[in-house]
Design brief:
The chain is an alpha+beta fold and 497 residues long. The protein is built from twelve helices and 23 strands. The protein folds into two domains: 28-225, Sandwich (Immunoglobulin-like), CATH 2.60.40; 330-490, Neutral Protease Domain 2 (Neutral Protease, domain 2). The longest helix has 18 residues, at 337-354. The chain is globular and about 65 Å long. Residues 50-219 form the Aminopeptidase N-like N-terminal domain.
Length: 497
């Protein structure tokens, strides 16, 4: 309840307020979420980031991280304040050179109020100085900063940035990166893109990495530890940088036997998806206890557990396929995850065929027949699986089935033109399932709404086409398991974190 008192000076104040241009009222806070229904408080509204410059120092013994992040952006509305997603302790924020006030809100919001409101379309330079111990931070109730015996790793999905740099943490706001990290001599720092330079001073070595193509925040990675680093160039001319923790133990040989084939697999995938879209390729295997792999852009993260049963090139194929489907062309919203996972899984099916261990058709028949109509497998809708079902098996396997159904419908010529055309036409951008359907219709010249609805959006088992159903019935109800299935199945928890 407010009591309104009009003092003698109030009329004068009111007359001053009337003198302020009406446009000043348009300055409002940027939204604390970018508008993704799966994760309402992820990302932020009011601006678009073009570049992150991160200058860091990390001490593995204590897990202490110090940093200065310079974020280049442009406002998309008249802003009185705006948010960044971040968890560590901030000591100073500057906006366009002037000190700004800041506070925290919610589980991971850094709220910044610039000294002067920012008009729409204004270029903005935000400098954030910070420090902290990432392993002690959680939000909401979890931590994606992975400690290792000799360092730490930042690699997770759908979020990982909060623990090491302030960001607009949603795939729809992609940016380029410079990541400079100082670590004690004898320790290495690995990130995305290409290593620009290294320098040593007073017991510290600084590694300067550059990602010169747009990258989603969850695809940015940092690994600090003692690594054996290998470099090579693929036959197709792609520089390859791989790294292996020096204490991988029994998994070391299998990890190398798999990841060292990165250049070969990149060239092979280029035959299906078009030219490799980035300045380098590669992967790293740190000594973590996690069980998943992640398509961190140009520098794939692999858990040692992926190689616990021996080499597995299928997981390497999966993560490298994401460099086109997921990294080059990123999802508009997290509900569009099928474009990432369905095509990465289908790439594994293509690799199976390449290796003579089962054709895509045989794998599709096996998956289709492995799940009876009453199986919960069919209740997950790959085209919109919900936040709790986003990384469930049907998104991968039923997602790949949908791709095989599309191939059957439009024919190989249109299908393979589509595989190459999509990354080219949407290079370094974002797209939705609806965008993909429209593109597929454009390339094939066929209406595909019913097919997409049946395979991606209906919570029930699609009926097999009559000719296919007859063929399957003739072969018997049981379809033989392709030789590659065990290796493919071993990657089912590839993103299960």
């Amino acid at each position: 309840m407010h009591r309104r008192i009009i003092a003698p000076g109030a009329l004068a104040a009111a007359s001053l307020l009337l003198a302020i241009p009406a446009s000043a009222a348009s300055y409002t806070p940027g939204a604390p979420g970018i508008g993704d229904p799966y994760y309402p408080d992820y990302g932020n509204g009011g601006y678009d980031v073009s570049h992150y410059d991160l200058r860091l120092q990390y001490q593995p013994k204590t897990d202490e991280l110090q940093g200065t992040a310079t974020v280049l952006a442009k406002t998309t509305q008249d802003l009185s304040s705006f948010d960044l997603d971040f968890l560590l302790d901030v000591s100073e924020v500057r906006v366009n050179g002037a000190k700004a006030s800041f506070t925290t809100s919610g589980p991971h919001e850094l709220v910044i109020t610039p000294k002067t409101p920012l008009a729409k379309g204004t270029p903005v330079t935000v400098v954030v100085r910070y420090s902290g111990v990432p392993s002690t931070k959680s939000a909401p109730g979890f931590n994606t900063w992975h400690r290792t015996p000799d360092g730490a790793v930042a690699a997770d999905e759908p979020e990982a940035a909060w623990w090491w740099f302030p960001s607009n943490d949603h795939p729809s706001d992609k940016a380029t990166y410079d990541v400079s990290v100082a670590v004690p001599d004898g320790t290495q720092a690995i990130s995305n893109g290409t290593l620009q330079s290294t320098s040593s001073k007073l017991g510290w070595t600084r590694y300067n990495w550059r990602q010169n193509k747009p990258q989603a925040t969850y695809l940015a990675t940092l690994a600090v530890g003692k690594f054996d680093i290998t470099t090579s160039t693929s036959e197709g001319g792609v520089p390859v940088i791989n790294a292996y923790s020096k204490d991988l133990g029994d998994n070391d040989g299998a990890a190398r036997a798999s990841v060292e084939r990165t250049g070969e697999i990149v060239d092979w995938l280029s035959g299906y998806f078009g030219p490799y879209p980035f300045s380098s390729a590669g992967g790293y295997v740190p000594n973590t206890t996690t069980g998943y792999a992640l398509e961190t852009q140009t520098r794939v993260y692999y858990s040692p557990k992926q190689f616990a049963n021996g080499s597995n090139t299928s997981v390497v194929v999966h993560e490298l396929a994401h460099q086109w489907y997921g990294d080059d062309v990123s999802l508009k919203g997290w509900k569009d995850i099928w474009i990432n996972e369905g095509f990465a899984r289908y790439a594994q099916w293509l690799w199976s065929e390449h290796e003579g261990e089962g054709t895509t058709r045989e794998l599709a028949d096996y998956v289709y027949n492995s799940h009876p109509s009453g199986d919960a497998f069919w209740t997950v809708k790959p085209g919109d699986p919900g936040p709790d079902g986003q990384f469930d098996l049907p998104v991968y396997d039923r997602g790949a089935l949908a791709i095989q159904a599309l191939r059957n419908e439009i024919g190989d010529d249109a299908f393979f033109a589509l595989l190459k055309g999509w990354p080219k036409d949407h290079a370094y951008g974002n797209a939705s399932v609806a965008d993909f359907q429209k593109y597929a219709e454009q390339v094939s010249g066929k209406p595909l709404a019913a097919l997409f609805d049946t395979w991606l959006f209906q919570p029930s088992k699609p009926a097999a086409p009559a000719a296919r159903a007859a063929s399957l019935a003739k072969a018997g109800t049981a379809v033989g398991r392709p030789k590659s299935w065990k290796k493919i199945e071993a990657t089912n928890d590839v993103h299960g974190h």
